[in-house]
Amino acid sequence: MSDNVAPTNRPRVLSGMRPTGKLHLGNYMGALANWVNLQDAYECYFFIADYHALTTDYADPSRIKLNTIDVALDWLAAGLDPQRSTIFIQSHVPQHAELHLLFSMITPLGWLERVPTYKEQQENLSSKDLTTYGFLGYPLLQSADILLYQPQYVPVGQDQVAHVELTREVARRFNSLYKSTVFPEPEVLLTPSPKLTGTDGRKMSKSYGNTIGLTESPKAVEAKVLSMSTNGQRAIQSDPGNPDLCPVADLHKAFSLPVIAVEWLSNCRAARSTCSECRRAAATSVQQHITPFFERRQQYEADIPGVWDMLREQSRKAEARAEQTMLEARKVLDLSRILTAEEARTFQARMAVQQVAAKGYDFASSTSLWQLGAFLTEAAVRKAWQQLIPADIALSEPTTAGFSPERVYEEPLILPAKKKRVFATAAAESEDSAEWRFSIPTKSYDVWVLLCGSDNGNWLNDFIVPPKYFVESFAKAKKATKTGPVPVAVHEQSGEFTLTVGDAAPVDITTLLSNYTPLK
Ligand code: TRP
Known about the structure:
13 strands; four-stranded mixed β-sheet; alpha/beta; Tyrosyl-Transfer RNA Synthetase; four-stranded antiparallel β-sheet; rod-shaped; Rossmann fold; binds tryptophan
């Protein structure tokens, strides 16, 4: 991804809606109105959850794309602004599917079976077969939607709280399993949603056919409000009514200026006005609020390909942000797409060891580590080196401060016939002199393997040192150091090599260089 994702220091929010087609006033009040208001104070991501539509509508997906466009048009009409928010389509950012899959690995079935909407929806939508894997995973896909953007807040209605709670649990489990902090736990930003009743007095819902559309024409809005139920109250208009029970009163509360709303509600209680007067006033308030939406929608409708291009462009922006998160998540799960030099070396070392094992390499009868290297086909020296010094042991420069323990590698290499204990260790040449410094633990070994390398790793001298060269001096040095490892050094001067153990005098080991003969 080359796109730059401009970082902002505003807190991030993310929310989504399924592509159910045109929105109604209930959808608007329940979510969208709030989202529009968040745009200045937050870094906003809003998306259309078309994958989620498939969890229930998989048998007939034919309306998903057009419904997606319909929702997008209503969002734009109501004031979601692509200049300020990222407005995108879920399936255009395949990272949603990828993260869902990864989460599916770590999420216990019970967590999903216990989400309250699971059984509920299965019963409500009994005409569809929802005994599917995808439907069970609905809230986990939602968790992926959310966590992919690492948001602080998720602005949703009460009905989504359980899903955000699951999201927090998934984040926690991921972080604790992999000892990571990839997924901060997001919080619900509860949309304060005033109750909105449908035109017939039941909950406003598409399936009841009692909705008022968010971008319906002013005329259609007027007609619907004027014929709206007032819940059978005030059959005689001189009777007082109770606005708490009246759908028209809900409209006033949601759309009239507060002073005006208060006036109509008290008029109702005191029977000072008729229901039809009250409806007319409510119709005007609703119209004032949403006529601009209707008009803006007309403009967007005139260029559907333009709107689609905008959504694709915005989805690319979302993808760039999502990919940032996936880089972290993949790395934690060892799925990173970058092969580090370190990994390549580790793998080579593993192969070298396997090859050596396959050839039945006999350490004790080899003449030198160079020969061991020659066994292998390429990079002979390096592999020989790695056979004893795995790649995860850093071969550091000798330091004047002392003998750094990470240069030491101890392996209970068992010599075939004699079961000798071998201690192998390596050092790079010090910068200013032909000297290699080692430190050897105060244990007893039958043989030392001292590997003296160049600091660029291009060559390697080995000394396989039998006990007679060090038993005495090592015992002395052990006493002197008590606990610590014993400093040992190899020096070279015009082709002659000496070994110094602790404070003892140097002994000549030139004959041991690459000239190993089996231990007796
Ligand atoms: N489940 C949400 C609804 O039915 C839609 C949704 C999907 C969502 N993914 C989301 C909402 C992520 C918020 C965040 O309305």
